[in-house]
């Protein structure tokens, strides 16, 4: 089944503040089609239960569950007759929360759930949702309600307040994520500090592929030396940082070439290449044909 693709412009008011939040009530006759999107979607189940259909798999979601859907991942819900599902959808682009800003706040190492959880193997994600209980669910709900209030009222400094509340929410999720992992012997596979660091960096690359990314920038953001970064990255991923950036960009370019009417030169710029000729040579080497031919084949 073909998934509907939603763009950020379908929801978000401006490019400068790529954020959207809303409450939904779904039943068996009112569910979204299978869809994917170019933004990050955080879903909180306020009340009810349903099946979450995610990337060809299915699992049960219930009251106080929270999960993150990455850009490009197809999903929807399946609700039984006479059942309802109340959720809050929070949508945003990675540019809403700058890593450099987080570093200045001293919290960039405290957002494991946001940086790591969405990039785990899909089989691991499928079986590990966070379910909030007690005070955590109350606090989490208050943060979401606060963001919805600010978003709808648009009073002075509303965008700054929403950014701060979203960061608090993500840090809270990371605290819960780490507490659950430390207590459960059957939880995620045990990972060492190097694995976590590289997953964090991979998350950054995946969300900022269209920006100018340098080894120096990564070293500054993640407090690591260039030599140590290159060694660990190759050890954990089998690729260099540059190779991974190119692969992420080429995959995104393939998607844009097929799904949009953009010319090759525009696609090159959208995925982070200022030199169309270099982009074309790289694309041919990785894919086996020119961007133009790939677009025509699609």
From TrEMBL:
It holds the Pfam family AraC_binding. SMART domains: HTH_ARAC. PROSITE patterns: HTH_ARAC_FAMILY_1, HTH_ARAC_FAMILY_2. Keywords: DNA-binding, Transcription, Transcription regulation. InterPro entries: AraC-bd, Homeodomain-like_sf, HTH-like, HTH_AraC, HTH_AraC-typ_CS, RmlC-like_jellyroll, Tscrpt_reg_AraC-type_HTH. Residues 199-297 form the HTH araC/xylS-type domain. This is Helix-turn-helix domain-containing protein. It comes from Metabacillus bambusae.
